[in-house]
């Protein structure tokens, strides 16, 4: 589904990792951050936290923080981020690290890992998810089969449409691109079915995965028992550290599926629940846009459901949310997650429309990696929690 009428320019993104650059825009006044953890902790100001910038190239945020933690000999949950960033990209973001004894600063500056850079180390308040102004993107779209004049004409019209607002949809990264399982895992966790949540995470396999990973997951899926668990450990590649850690624990504690899930970082487990919230939000937003697209929509907000959400069956949008939850056999109270209360989700709201700022065409050039094709470089800023892929989908319509 597209929300703009102008034909796209086609092409493809991320042909080269450096074609996708993301830089975090810090809050101008962190004390005034709204919602979630940031609001709850806005009164905390101390120097127990190191704040540093992390530049990473083709690294998953959770994986690189675990590796830095290992280098520093500290627990990975000492780190806090304002937002996760794409793996297949060149990204720059701030990280906070709890360092109450002031022992880690020099060691942090000495960390050396391929394709990352740590810089601008200082002290300040703890970061929390959502505690950023937004993100700045510089993106190269390659393999475009149009002439320069046609590209310019289409982009001018597309930019004008997009600036009026497009639905603030959660992008595919929210749900997993190679393995779109995050929402399914979250749904099972909300049902308190931790065994099925574990099974989906470790054993569901997809064609886009490498063959060795598919082989291991397929074997485990077909042999879901303690013996299969032990044998599958011989098959799982060492790079799949999360899965190997979970299976190792499961072999020792065959009935403790909550404990198995807790082998994953808290922020990753929370992402599963957030993905389910996001899936509901997307369904409502897409349907709402089709029904109401000719109305003024700039002030509309759609609930992100949680245990504090109040839904009215008399209101059409909220009635649809109630219907989705009933179909999934989930109650609002389930978001309190009694079996894993550290992940409880109170709920909130999200702006229906996304308004990209500073949307610019930077360059149209010959594509040095695709003969006879054009490459386009564009830049824009997005508010925290919004997805560049949603904007790019409208621009490319591929």
Short description:
This protein is α+β, with helices and mostly antiparallel strands.
Q: What do you see in this structure?
A:
The chain is of the alpha+beta class and 398 residues long. The chain has two domains: 28-130, 2-Layer Sandwich (Alpha-Beta Plaits); 171-354, Hypothetical Protein Yqey, Chain: A, domain1, CATH 1.10.1510. The protein has 13 helices and twelve strands. The chain has helices at 36-40, 61-72, 105-109, 148-163, 182-190, 194-203, 211-222, 226-232, 241-252, 257-261, 266-292, 316-327, 388-396; strands spanning 20-26, 49-57, 79-81, 90-98, 116-124, 132-144, 166-167, 301-304, 348-351, 353-354, 357-366, 374-383. Strands 1, 2, 3, 4, 5, 6, 11 and 12 form an eight-stranded mixed sheet that branches. Strands 7-10 form a two-stranded antiparallel ribbon. A hairpin with an 8-residue loop joins strand 3 (79-81) and strand 4 (90-98). Helix 5 packs across helix 11 and helix 11 packs across helix 12 (316-327). The longest helix has 27 residues, at 266-292. The radius of gyration is 22 Å and the shape is globular. The chain starts with 19 loop residues before the first strand and ends with a helix. Residues 32-44 have low confidence and may be disordered.
